[in-house]
Amino acid sequence: MTQPLLIEIIGEPGVGKTHLSLTFPRPFLIDTSPKYEAKAIARKVLGEGWEKRYASSRDLREIVQILSEVLDRDDVATVIIDTGADLQSLGAKEYLRRKREAGKERTQVTQIEYGRVRDLIDDEVINYVIRHDKNLILTAQTGDA
Q1: How confident is the model at residue 1 (pLDDT cuts 50, 70, 90)?
Q2: Which of 48, 52, 55, 109 is most buried (CB neighbours < 10 A)?
Q3: Nearest to 53, CA basis, from 17, 25, 88, 11
Q4: CA distances in angstroms from 84 to 76, 92, 101, 105, 145, listed in the order given
Q5: Using one digit for the tens of pLDDT, what is the confidence trace for 14-60?
Q6: In the chain, where the domains are located
Q7: Residue 136 phi, psi dihedral angles, 5° rounding
Q8: What ranges in the chain are assigned the alpha helix state H?
Q9: What single string gives the DSSP state of each residue in 20-31?
């Protein structure tokens, strides 16, 4: 058995990060960008049937649900999250939601708490994908990483 790949592709807007990520084996793209910019690229690169290899979300809980549905599929070997910076924002939003649910009214994550946000993303997304022996690719614009 081979070790799954964990890759971050970093570059300027429009250089082909999403396009490159879709060339990895049996890709599934989760588009987390605010305007779902990766959708057009997925259509173009994946062609017919692209809908089975694409999902969009602006909610960490929904991303985890999407992962639970696709990680056991044999036709998926690589999960792509476009972008990692958006995933970080969604993680912070979820962290605050959980704080409020626990009775702590909060409007922003403190500098110290960003380590907990990263732990949340690691536990619920990154390690979840790796435990399923799938490759994981995160894209990031220069300056986001």
Answers
A1: low
A2: 55
A3: 25
A4: 20, 12, 25, 27, 8
A5: 999 999 999 999 999 999 988 999 999 999 999 999 999 999 999 99
A6: 6-141
A7: -130, 130
A8: 17-21, 38-46, 60-70, 84-101, 114-121, 127-131
A9: HHTTSSSEEEEE
Q: What is the CA radius of gyration of the chain?
A: 15
Euclidean distance between CA atoms 140 and 113, whole angstroms: 22
- Give pLDDT tens digits for 73-103: 999 999 999 988 899 999 999 999 999 888 8
Indicate the fold that domain 6-141 takes in CATH.
Answer: Rossmann fold (3.40.50)
Name the nearest CA neighbour of 51 among 23, 64, 70: 70
In the chain, the amino acid numbered 23 is: T
Q: According to the model, what pLDDT value does residue 145 have?
A: 53
